[in-house]
Amino acid sequence: MPPRPDLLAAPDSATATAVALSGVRHEYRSGGRRILALDGIDLRLAAGESLAVVGPSGCGKSTLLRMIAGFLRPSHGEIRVGGEPVTGPGPDRGVVFQQPRLFPWLSVRGNVAYGLREAGWARSRRRERVEQLLELVGLGDVGGLRPYELSGGMQQRAAIARALAPDPAILLLDEPFAALDALTRERLQEELRGIWLRTGKTLVLVTHSVDEAALLGSRVVVLSPRPGTVVLDESSALPRVEQARETPEFGALRTRILQAVRGE
Ligand SMILES: Nc1ncnc2c1ncn2[C@@H]1O[C@H](COP(=O)(O)OP(=O)(O)OP(=O)(O)O)[C@@H](O)[C@H]1O
């Protein structure tokens, strides 16, 4: 499919910093206990990069994503998005969760249009945008169906379309394919790669899957066990490569990620 200029993000320049984390630390306090989830995180993500964050369970991956999304404030340090300090959620960041969280009473089209309606988009513009997005995620034929009529993979595609609707510069995905079967997961990984290539969005993808990180990250960051600190930070050309799984580079990167996750 050729690039769709209307769906492209418009960073100031190819190297503009989209997300900057400086000295970020997060400590939860629950029931009189303090849990240090993340510490000393310094990351600068350029516009258009696809950052895959991988690490053992409980290392603070979701915490990191939720802070960038603005759902959670860091205990220390600062997070900037597009140069501005993050003070809460905003239309510049779309979020996709492990569960699609679609509104069951709305059609697929209605779900994708929801944020646009709230943002006051005129009906004709909204309609055009929704149809473009449904095409982009491969749901062009099922816009009139309700979420319960869709497979899990289709629901997750609808969730991605909904997150992309207001044209956020950054798409944040928290284990978006973890609840799907292996085949659907592989297909959606490939589709997300295509969406990234076609839209030029900045992506932050949290995943348990070493393969997913190696396939989708133009930058791969591995966090240590809690408190999460960065133990591997590598740029990669693999998400731009067709059939990347078949390449020796994929195997080599996979091994380096695995070793970092295991603390070797
Ligand atoms: N609301 C909370 N209150 C207290 N502790 C929390 C809270 N949310 C997360 N934690 C703790 O913070 C640590 C990091 O959690 P987080 O969910 O960010 O890790 P994760 O790497 O995403 O884990 P997983 O891969 O299992 O989803 C964990 O030890 C978790 O138990």
- Low-confidence stretches are 1-14
User: In percent, how much strand structure appears in the residues?
Assistant: 25-35%
Task: Record the strand order, biggest sheet.
Answer: 6-7-8-3-9-10
Report the major sheet: 6 strands, mixed
Overall spatial form: globular
Listing every helix as H and every strand as E from the N terminus to the C terminus, the arrangement reads: EEEHEEEHHHEHEHEEH
What count of helical segments does DSSP give?
7
Ligands, deduplicated: adenosine-5'-triphosphate
- Give the integer mean of the pLDDT values: 92
GO molecular function: ATP binding; ATP hydrolysis activity
Keywords: ATP-binding, Nucleotide-binding, Transport
InterPro entries: AAA+_ATPase, ABC_transporter-like_ATP-bd, ABC_transporter-like_CS, ABC_transporter_ATP-bind, P-loop_NTPase
Organism: Catellatospora bangladeshensis
